[in-house]
Amino acid sequence: MLDRVFPWLFRPRHKKDEPFGLLQLYPPPEYTRYTKPGIEIIAIHGLGGNRLRSFTKDDNIWLKDFLPENPRVIPLHPKVSTFGYDASVAFGKSVSKIRDFAFQLLNELERTRLDSQTTGVPIVFVAHSVGGIVAKAALIIAHEREEHYRDIKACVKGIVFMGTPHVGSDLAAATKVLRDIANVVAVRTVRKDLLKALEPKSQELQDIAEQFVHRGSGLEVVSIYEQMLTRRVLVVDRLSATLGVSNERLVAIPRNHSGICKYSRQDEGVYAMVSGAVVSLLENIHRNSCT
């Protein structure tokens, strides 16, 4: 819709994408300066992913090209961004851990909301795989350090988990699932420092899982889980991909772990299943303002 009214803002810009930080997908930043969004959507990729590639199929980024065009979403005036962090596999030099990624997300989000004068706008995370753990860690930190992240703490209203492993209370099972994820996204071994954070003796993953039960109790939650194998493995099964809480909506789709978050057409049946749940979540959140 906006591309027809302001076509010059939507012309492609042939600029190489930097892999890290927040990238605004919709609408173009020039438009946001004049119109305050009604809701802000932040996509977070998983292990071995990329802030664009992880959500792209046949050159279509569904969060940019499909979702904002939904007749039920247009009145919400969404702002859509995607967050990239160094979750690379093989030969990665960063020593970042999950909480470090979460801090990066929080600081970037705080900066962009202040710069664009969009504080107070409700926030929804759409997170694939381990990106969901980053989202949970960010929400926990926002509560722990409210003096720095008061706006984010108040405004995160929902999370869409897409193949996120929620088995942190059982560290042995969690480590197995996360190693399965690592094995399907790379032929070589995953960066050693990140894997160490996923070992059974690591307290980080257990803390995130336990604390989110309380921090996420007031959120709108959609958990989407895969039904197809990846390299003969159901990477994150229903038990692992669901929180088991009353405020959670479950969506099973016939895709594998990588394909669970990318769609090529708006009329695709699988996309309709996912978008239906996501749009309902956005509508529910939009009915209430940040407090």
Strand order of the largest sheet: 1-5-2-6-7-8-9
Mean pLDDT: 85
Helix fraction bin:
25-40%
Rounded Rg: 18 Å
- In terms of DSSP E residues, the strand content is 15-25%
Largest sheet: 7 strands, mixed
Give a description of the structure.
- It is a single chain.
- Residues 2-15 and 89-93 have low confidence and may be disordered.
- The chain has helices at 2-5, 29-32, 62-65, 98-115, 131-144, 146-155, 171-185, 192-196, 203-215, 238-241, 269-286; strands at residues 21-26, 39-44, 56-57, 60-61, 78-84, 123-128, 156-162, 220-226, 248-253.
- It is an alpha/beta fold and 291 residues long.
- The protein is globular, with a radius of gyration of 18 Å.
- β8 (220-226), α10 and β9 (248-253) form a beta-alpha-beta unit.
- The protein has a 7-stranded mixed beta sheet with strand order 1-5-2-6-7-8-9, with helices on both faces.
Secondary-structure map:
Blueprint (H helix, E strand, L loop, with lengths): L1 H4 L15 E6 L2 H4 L6 E6 L11 E2 L2 E2 H4 L12 E7 L13 H18 L7 E6 L2 H14 L1 H10 E7 L8 H15 L6 H5 L6 H13 L4 E7 L11 H4 L6 E6 L15 H18 L5
Parallel strand pairs: 2-5, 2-6, 6-7, 7-8, 8-9
Antiparallel strand pairs: 1-5, 3-4
Helix pairs in contact: 4-5, 5-6, 5-9
List its salient traits:
seven-stranded mixed beta sheet, 9 strands, 291 residues, two-stranded antiparallel sheet, alpha/beta, 11 helices
